[in-house]
From TrEMBL:
<keyword id="KW-1133">Transmembrane helix</keyword>
<keyword id="KW-0812">Transmembrane</keyword>
<keyword id="KW-0472">Membrane</keyword>
<protein>
    <recommendedName>
        <fullName>Type II secretion system protein</fullName>
    </recommendedName>
</protein>
<feature type="transmembrane region" description="Helical">
    <location>
        <begin position="12"/>
        <end position="31"/>
    </location>
</feature>
Length: 166
């Protein structure tokens, strides 16, 4: 009779150890999944921030070298995509450029998308043409289940605004 109780005790102990190990394994898997998701989101946000900075600088270069007099207008928007969707994620970038200065500067520049303020005769900010650049970088979250289903309205958008004096 003693032999049967030892076997039963060993079986109960083995089942208890298996349950504890399964619980610890599930906890480790849960923490690992959350860590991977957080790392992925951080990577996507950093990539969007770097793209926004890069396209801000591109907008400044385009505005500086765009011949407003010959074309009779100003460059107001730049649209681009980054990534091919197969080997890398697709980021949609929209850059809006607004021009700001006093009346004399803006009339000479032929710009339509402008902000005007009165010339108070002081040198400095009012005496030159300035750019207000808004860069929007939108992308899909890797871990969003509706992104795989093709839902378009679930994009994350990173926004950067820059004021640049020309």
């Amino acid at each position: 009779m003693i032999t049967h109780s030892k076997k039963a005790f060993s079986m109960v102990t083995a089942i208890f150890v298996i349950v504890i190990m399964a619980t610890v394994t599930a906890l480790i898997m849960n923490v690992t999944g959350k860590t991977i998701k957080e790392t992925t989101q951080q990577y996507q946000k950093e990539q969007a921030a770097l793209l926004a900075r890069s396209y801000t600088e591109q907008a400044i270069l385009y505005a500086l070298h765009y011949d407003r007099t010959a074309n009779g207008n100003c460059i107001n928007q730049i649209n681009a995509t980054f990534g091919d969707g197969i080997t890398s994620q697709v980021f949609n970038i929209t850059t809006n450029i607004q021009y700001a200065s006093n009346e004399a500067q803006l009339d000479a520049s032929n710009c339509e998308n402008i902000a005007r303020w009165a010339d108070n005769g002081t040198a400095g900010f009012n005496s030159s043409l300035s750019l207000l650049i808004d860069v929007y970088v939108s992308y899909k979250d890797f871990d969003d289940p509706s992104a795989a289903a093709g839902v378009e309205d679930r994009n994350i958008t990173f926004h950067r605004r820059t004021l640049q004096k020309l």
